[in-house]
Every structure is written in structure tokens, then in C-alpha cells.
Amino acid sequence: MKCPHCNAPVEDTWVACPACGGRLPRERPCATCGGTLQPEWRVCPFCANPIAPVEKPGGAPEEPPASGAHIELDAAVAKEISQDVEGGGASLTMTDSVARSVSQTVKGAGLPCGDEGAGESAVSGLANMALHDVVAKEIHQEVHFHVGSAEDLDGILTHSAASRLKARLVFVACGREIRAYNPRAAACAAPANVYTLPDAMGSARSVRLAKVDDRLLVLAGARCGVVAFDQQTAAARVYPFPRSTRHGANATAVLDGRLYATHSDFGLLEWPLDGGEPTSLFTNVFGPARTVRGVQVTPKRDVILCAGTSAYRFDPSNPDVGLVEYKAPAGANLVGVAHCGEYLYAAAITGRVFRWLAALPSSRETVLADAHAKAYCMSLVQMRRGPRLVLGSKCGFVRVVDLKPPQATAHYHAPGGTRIRWARGAPDLVVASDNACRVIYFWDSDRPQQPHADVVVAKLGRDLVMDIAVLSM
């Protein structure tokens, strides 16, 4: 491990999260430059449970929080995930309660489990693996860790299974920070964790999440490049742009050891994930001064994005195929793109939503939603009743479009008709910022009438909310 301030080697020291057992770095200063290597997280980045403070260098250990509060949280989690956990859940770990819950669901579905003793053990082990698959599929639009197709996702995420997935952390790009909030905390006004961009990178324009091996990366698209933070250690790697600009990377994605970013001045850039110089891709299409947005990885391991009035797809592992174009009706630039099942979706700045057969780019587009207020973003979310498109639009609510007939649209209303800009979602949560980019609102996905909480993220000043990402587990 190296110090992010002076690059000097330091001893790799870890502690364990008392809730889930995840390995967390111990806070201490670098012996060479004195810089703090790791902020003192208040929640575990694995399970979002409170972390007992660790011993600080040169001082006595701090008193852990009262055990009663910790037990009460565990009991609530256990009750929420499984109604039939014996013992009230207080003595169970999160992993055990989830494994048992999934185990009961598997047996209830009539799958063969063998005899009761051996079957329980086998299913319990299978449940842990299945849970990881579900988590990976649930966040496949935000975390690029694909286990199966969108059809598999719909098959696994039944009403029962989807209800177990919870939004654990909401990441907000604001100023020179990525701030992580716990949307279910009683006092969520203060961020649980903060990732600070290096001064040379400027302010953050976007935030995305990416899964690389067993690490979760928090990707900050900044004014002067991309910064990839390791969620566990907060160690940062910088991917600078060829030159400084007034804008920032508006989306980032990771696939097979390569980092991609879209930028209106540079088009589509690619870096080796281990570091190096960027390469401009498809410069004849994504040239300078074009609206190039929304790069992401599909479940089929293609890269998709939108530019001008078209959506695009390409396979990095087969460059001979080239770039596939999906043309939207002329007159409005696209602000977001998504892939689900056999279809590719895109939203225009006018608020219209289009759909094409992904395998037939020349097929006639279908309009899923008509023109509405100005749209700023669109993302695919697996909600409890199936996949939905979540749109951030300049109106007094978040627009959520069902992908299955009859494509009904739900509205998550903001207080007092406050206009919305950025919006994302999870099975149990819809989150959005106001159009002034200072406040974020949290709705329960089953209660669109009003948000259950709101947080003032950007105080008076130049720092604004520029993007949102949600981690579900």
C-alpha cells in the first residue's frame, strides 16, 4: 500500500467491520509526510452498518457505541429480510440472516434440497452465491459486474427476491467531493463517507460505480480527468485528460481492464485501467463540440452511449464490427441510453423516450413516452415490479416509465412542485436533486406521493449537485 500524498510505501493494516466482518483499513498518518491515509468512515462500505471507532495512532482506543443500538439495528435488518429468523435476529450476522432467507425462498420454490440436514447446509452455501449474483445483476447499470442477461435478472428478481435488495449508499458528486449518504439513517444530513478529489482535477461532474474483481470503484468524472477511488481504502488513481477544459467527464464505465469516459470536448476516451495515456475512439463520429453522453456497459458486455440525435453500441472485444448506430427522430439531442433484454432505450432532451430492437438498429423506433419537460438524464432501474426507466426532468416530479406494456408512467412528487434535475433509483428507493442542484430527495419506491427525507447537499456557494449514483445490496 502507498501513501496517496507522497507515494511512500506504508504498512497495510486492517480492522474488521463488527457488523459484517469486512476488512477495513485502520486510520493512521503516513510516516513520511504525515498525511491521513484513510478517513474515519462512519459506516461500513460493504454493509452500510455503523463502524465502531478504531484506536487512533498515539492515543487511547475510543469507546465503541452502545451495544444496544447495534443489536437493535441487527434485529431490524434481520426482521426486514426474513420474518421467520429464529431468536429475533439479534445474534445473527447480516450474512447469516440473508442466507437463511434465500434458503427458505429456494426451498419454498420446490427446488431439490436433499435430506433436511445436508440440504439445509448445501442450500445455505448456494444462497450466499445466489445472493451475490442478485446483487451483481441488480446494480449492473451502475456497477459493471455482469453475471447474466437482463432476462435472467427478471427471472431472479421476483417480488420476494427484489424486496430483499436495499439501497445502501447514495453517492453525490458535489464540488471537489463525492459524498456518500445512507438514505435510511435517522440523521442522514451529514455524509457517511467522503471522497475528496485531488486539487489538480478540479470539481466533479459525474459519479459512477464499477466492480473490478472484488473491488468496488467510485468513479468521479472531473473537470481535468477521471479519478477512480477504491471504496474500501479511498486510494485514488488519476486518469488525466489530454488538456484542461471547462467541462468534465459526464459519464464513465469500466470493462475488461479499460476505463471509458464521455466528454463534449473529447468525445469518447479510453484508458488502460492500470494507468497510461488516453486514446480517442471513433473520432470521426464523436468529434469535439458534440453532445456525447452516458457511456456504460451492457449485460452483453457491449459499450453503449449517445451523441447528438443517435445512440451507439460497439463491442470492444471485436473491433472489426465497428460502431452500430440507432437513429432517433431529428431535432432533439439524446441525454441518456440504456439496454434491457432485447431492446435499446434512449431519452431525448425533449422528454421523449425511444426504443429499438438492439439486434436491428435499422428497425423503426417506438415512442414509449411523449415529449414533456426538458430532460437531463435517464437510467435503467430494476424495481420491485420489474425494470423501469428513471428520468430526471425539469418538472415537479421524477418520471418513472414501465418497460412492459402499457408503458405506464409513475410520478414521484417533489415538495411544493420543486423542479427536478438529476434522478436515479433502486428497488426500494428513488432519489433526485432539485433543479437548483442543492438538495436531494429520497422516496420509498412504493410511496411516490412525497419523499421520506431530504438533505441539503450544497450550501450557498459555487458547489452544486452534478450527478447521483446508488449502490444496492
Can you put this structure into words, describing what you see?
- The chain is mainly β.
- It has 3 domains: 1-65, no CATH class; 81-138, no CATH class; 167-472, Methylamine Dehydrogenase, Chain H (7 Propeller).
- It is built from 5 helices and 30 strands.
- It has helices at residues 67-81, 94-108, 116-138, 150-156, 159-163; strands at residues 14-16, 23-25, 167-174, 177-181, 193-196, 204-212, 215-222, 225-230, 236-240, 251-255, 258-263, 267-272, 279-281, 292-297, 303-307, 310-314, 324-327, 334-340, 343-348, 353-357, 366-369, 375-383, 386-393, 397-402, 409-413, 420-426, 429-434, 439-444, 453-456, 465-472.
- The strands form 8 sheets. Strands 5-4-3-30 form a 4-stranded antiparallel beta sheet, with no helix packed on it. It has a 4-stranded antiparallel beta sheet with strand order 6-7-8-9, with no helix packed on it. A 4-stranded antiparallel beta sheet has the order 10-11-12-13, with no helix packed on it.
- The longest helix has 23 residues, at 116-138.
- Residues 54-160 have low confidence and may be disordered.
Per-chain topology:
Layout: E1 14-16, E2 23-25, H1 67-81, H2 94-108, H3 116-138, H4 150-156, H5 159-163, E3 167-174, E4 177-181, E5 193-196, E6 204-212, E7 215-222, E8 225-230, E9 236-240, E10 251-255, E11 258-263, E12 267-272, E13 279-281, E14 292-297, E15 303-307, E16 310-314, E17 324-327, E18 334-340, E19 343-348, E20 353-357, E21 366-369, E22 375-383, E23 386-393, E24 397-402, E25 409-413, E26 420-426, E27 429-434, E28 439-444, E29 453-456, E30 465-472
Antiparallel strand pairs: 1-2, 3-4, 3-30, 4-5, 6-7, 7-8, 8-9, 10-11, 11-12, 12-13, 14-15, 15-16, 16-17, 18-19, 19-20, 20-21, 22-23, 23-24, 24-25, 26-27, 27-28, 28-29
